[in-house]
Amino acid sequence: MKIENLMNRKLITLSMDSTLRKAKELFESNTIHHLLITDDDGLLAGVITDRDLYKHLSPTVGTSQETHRDTALMQKKLHQIMARNLITAKTQQSLNEAVVLFYDNHISCLPVVDKNNKPIGIITWRDILKVLALQYKKKLTAR
């Protein structure tokens, strides 16, 4: 099975100069755990996870105890916290190759890029787990 058959093509991206506030809004309004960050040319520049974001936020953000410092922190730019040394995949790579990339690099997502490094999809460890679970269930019902 090829990555192109599993990847999510509905990408939610932000620019490097987007704020933590915008990322927080997107994580909260979508059921996602990864945001792809693009440069001015639309090329992949980084990734931010919901865990990366929440590591940088105060627990009082959005509450009645929110401080001026919390508010200022929400204006921090994504390029300041995003992961830059990315492991990426191509559409024709196999599911097995993807699993090895996840395992060897201790990552939770693989951005799928074209030959110019433009993001065209994403696959997460949850996507792979779903495929394995469905294959297993299918095998059980075939018995």
Question: What's the total number of strands?
Answer: 5
Percent strand equals: 15-25%
Strand neighbour order, sheet with most strands: 1-2-3
CATH class: Alpha Beta
* Distance N to C terminus: 23 Å
- What's the order of the H and E elements? EHEEHHHEEH
Low-confidence stretches: none
Q: What is the name of the CATH superfamily?
A: CBS-domain
- The number of distinct helices, counting runs of at least 4 residues, comes to 5
Radius of gyration over all CA atoms, rounded: 17 Å
Describe, in plain words, how this protein is organized in 3D.
The chain is of the alpha+beta class and 143 residues long. It has one domain: Roll (CBS-domain). It is built from 5 helices and 5 strands; from the N terminus they run βαββαααββα. It has helices at 20-29, 50-56, 68-73, 95-105, 125-142, and strands at 13-15, 34-38, 44-49, 109-113, 119-124. A 3-stranded mixed β-sheet has the order 1-2-3. The longest helix has 18 residues, at 125-142.
